[in-house]
Amino acid sequence: xxxxxxxxxxxxxxxxxxxxxxxxxxxxxxxxxxxxxxxxxxxxxxxxxxxxxxxxxxxxxxxxxxxxxxxxxxxxxxxxxxxxxxxxxxxxxxxxxxxxxxxxxxxxxxxxxxxxxxxxxxxxxxxxxxxxxxxxxxxxxxxxxxxxxxxxxxxxxxxxxxx
Length: 163
Prior knowledge:
The chain has helices at residues 13-17, 34-44, 51-56, 74-80, 85-101, 105-113, 116-123, 133-162. By secondary structure, the protein is mostly helical. It has one domain. The longest helix is centred in the C-terminal third of the chain and has 30 residues, at 133-162. The chain starts with 12 loop residues before the first helix and ends with a helix.
């Protein structure tokens, strides 16, 4: 198989949605948060073990077990699950502070005014790199922090609910 054939694989449709350039993975450049890289990869390719994925296997109704208020998709996990609000607020306050303190307030305001899908592309995808390398790295690092913190909290809460 030629590497370009990967662009045509239907199983990678979700992953391609988040990419600007084939075969370039900016989020893997900094391996200081390897677990964050793993979770971001799973989120990008639709393999994060959320209830919406488990529903495809016929073993769940797809509803969020944390807030019980919607399908647990990547968008829900990243932006809507009220159980994860504290973690989300800490990370997004840090993002806001970094952008405003580095004179990129316009990026923060654009992010806030964006649709959920665009926000997902900024955090999980590579769209933040369109504002420059520094902005892309900032979104990337904070997305990984959110993913690891929120995923750990999700696992902890689900585990304690089972016991």
